[in-house]
Structure formats: C-alpha cells, structure tokens
Amino acid sequence: MAEKSKGEILKETLSYNVKNSYEKMDEAEIEKAYGFCNEYKRFLDICKTERECSDYIIKAATEKGFTPYDKNKKYKAGDKVYINNGGKSNFLFIFGKKPVSEGVMITAAHVDAPRLDLKPRPLYEDNSLALFKTHYYGGIKKYQWTAIPLSLHGVVILESGEKKEIVIGEGENDPVFALTDLLPHLAKDQMEATLKNAFKGEGMNILIGSRPFKDDKVSEKVKLNILSILNEKYGIKEEDLISAELEIVPAFKARDVGLDRSMIGAYGQDDRVCAYTALMGILDTEEPEYSCLCALVDKEETGSDGVTGMQSHFMSYFLEDIAAITNTTLRDIYRNSMCLSADVSAAFDPNYSEAYDPKNSVYINNGVAVMKYTGHGGKGGTSDASAEFFAEVRRILKDVVWQSGELGKVDQGGGGTVAKYIANLSVNTIDIGVPVLSMHSPFEVVSKTDVYNTYKAMVNFYNYVK
To answer: Which of 186, 267, 385, 448 is at 20 to 30 A from 198, Cα to Cα?
Structure first.
C-alpha cells in the first residue's frame, strides 16, 4: 500500500467529513435500528392527536415503573414519576444520584401536529351534501389536504358530563371523510391563481354524508340523518359539538418507504418522531447521575401558548415542587440544567434544492441533526447555543451519528421551536432532532437510522456524566 502524502494525512486529520450512517453503523446496529422503528410505526398509527399521545405515554411510563407524582412524598435516587397536564402534555422525571440543585437533564418535544379542527358549529347541509366546517391548525399547505382519505378523532362532552372518545376512519371497515377538489376540466381560474390564493381556509369543508333522512315534513334531511347517526352511536346532540375537541387527520397508516425499506412515511412525524425517541430514551434510563426530565408538550405548532403549551408555567411549577422537597431553589435547578429541544429539521430535498444551502443543510441518513440556532432572517425568534455548550453536546454524541446545519437559506423563510422558551429560564439549550422530507404535509418522510440515532442521543444525554 502506497504511503500517504503529507497533504492526505492533513486532510484526513483536519477536515470535517460528513458520513452516511450506513458507512458508520455495522449490520447488527442497522438491524437494531430497523427493529426499533417497528414499534415507532405502531405509535404513529395509534397516536394521531395529542390526547392519544398522552394516553400512550402514560401507559408506557407506567409499564416502566413510573408513578403519578405526589408532592407530599419523599423520593430517592432512581425513583420515577410523571405528571399529566390537561390530558395533552406530560412530564416524566427520574431522580438522579446527584442533588437536583446540580441541574436536570431536560429534553422537550411536542406531540401536536398540523391538522384540521372542526369549528364550534361545524355541521351543515349544502345542496344535499352534509359537511363539516374546519379551521386549520398550524402551518399547512392547504392543497395537500384535498382528495385524500381523512379520519375524525377527538372527544365530545355530553350535556350529562359524560365524555365520548371518537375515532372514525382508522378501522379497516370504517368510513373515511374527504376534502374534495375541483376537477382539472373546470379548474382554469384555480390553476392560474397562486397556491396561497387558490385554496381558501373557509373552503376546507369536509364531506361527511349524502343520504337524506326519510321524512318529508323536515328540511335539511341529510344533516338530520348525520345527527341521527351520531346520536344513535354516541348520544351526541348538535349542541354538544360546540364544546367538543374534534380533529380531522389523514386516515392512512405509517408505511415503509423505498424498495430498501430504509425510510418511514406517515402523518405527524413533526414532532412525534422526537417525542417518541425522547420518551423511549428516558424509559430505558435507570438511576442516572443527574435527574432527568422529559417534557412532551402541546401547542408548539401554534406558538406554544395556552395551558398545555411550553409557554405555560406548568413545568416551572412542577420543578418548583421538586425544589421544595429537595431543599433547593428553582433558580439553582435552572442555572445548572441542560436541555435538548427535540424538534425535527428540514432535510435537504434535491427536488427543491434552490431553497437550501447545500453546505449547511442536514440530510436523510446522516444522523440526528444538531442545530445551534433556528429562527428566521437575522436569527429572529430563536435562542443561540453557546460554543461551550455545543462543544459539550458534541462530547455527549461521541458514539452517535450526527450532523449539523440550518433550516434552508438565510432569507428563504425559517422556523422556530420551544428552545427559546426554555433558554429564557437560564437553561443552556440546543435544538436536536430528526431530518424530515415533506415536513408539515399529511405524509412526512424520515430515515430509520436517523430515528435510531436520535434515540441513542437521548439515552446518552439522560446518562450524562461530567
């Protein structure tokens, strides 16, 4: 073998070479990654709303020895607790060997996803068709929701106070719903309009029925037939829909993508892929050096406001209770804590390469993405991790396939995460997550090895030792 030249040695030593995960992982680990993703796909299929995610999280945590938090109880190292916030967000906590005053290893991900919510008065009839009026939730491209099978999920509280949980469209024999689109033959005006103007929010009305109730003495017979069906099956009256939380989501299941089955396509992977990996990471953690907190929250897609969002004081109140029973202060906990804001990033898409900076993008199969900052334009709306903290994160990820980049070109757009809300508490925070193709669409795509490496990153972080 020819001896390496000085230039070759320097290049090998000094250059940063990004490698595909399939070059860094052996076959046994790749097989493990694929196996890990089987349960992840099942999670995606049964967790299409934040409430369904919450139910899954509590069940999984309970099976791993987590118990409901009791502020009057004394806890020791290794004890595991959880606290639920409004049935839509959850906080899982493990008491570490070191005092809580020395900091907590925090991960934060969100379980809500873009969707269509039913309006307070959704049901109406128009030209012998029954429809639901909707109000879209989060950032969507409206045209992507037309002409695909849709399902209905949520809860309805009856006048009696009884809660009815609704899931229609997921079973093999269930009916599905649809948002119709205009046929190309009549779409001249639509095709000439911009995407922004061709599809209106007020036009996103879901087709739910066409069969009239048999009674010549009443009007709006199709609407009445739908009400009759809902009442017979669930006891619902029209007034009950006003206070209901009902969401329209894609009806299809998570699927392997590609002849090589190397990717997963599904609805809601932003940000349930990071929520799942953060959850699995803490469930697989036993007696960590530092206390660990996994925050799985709601409302990120609309700004993290509200009782169950990251801007709520719920996490601070919880940690304040922890501080009280461990004879420390909340400010000391925050000052010494570290956080991974676990949210997805936009994977470089060769079909739309003009939107990206190829040298500073993240790529499918290159591992978990670490983002020093997010935001838009001149880094607006973000925190910016320090060099010292980023270097520490690099050390934590020493045996993980990871990459770094930005969310597209500087002036192209941008996006934010919950990182800034946690950083504002004086917690060192950085963004980390899975690269995604077709983000915010009804069918997002991720790499199986990227999902697995994100899980490994979470495990390393929870088990951090200085």
So the answer is: 267
Predicted confidence (pLDDT) per residue in 422-451, tens digit: 999 999 999 999 999 999 999 999 999 999
Do 15-113+267-462 and 115-250 show the same overall fold?
no
CA distance 390 to 307: 31
394 close to 340: Cβ distance less than 8 angstroms:
no
CB 209 within 8 A of CB 129: yes
> Tens of pLDDT along 94-117?
999 999 999 999 999 999 999 999
> Model pTM?
0.96
Contacts with 433 (C-beta within 8 Å, 6 or more apart), sequence order = 109, 271, 273, 274, 342, 343, 344, 345, 368, 369, 371, 454
Quote the CA–CA distance of 448 and 454 in Å, as a whole number.
10
115-250 carries CATH number 2.30.250.10: yes
- Boundaries of every domain in the chain: 15-113+267-462, 115-250
Structure confidence at residue 301 (pLDDT): 95
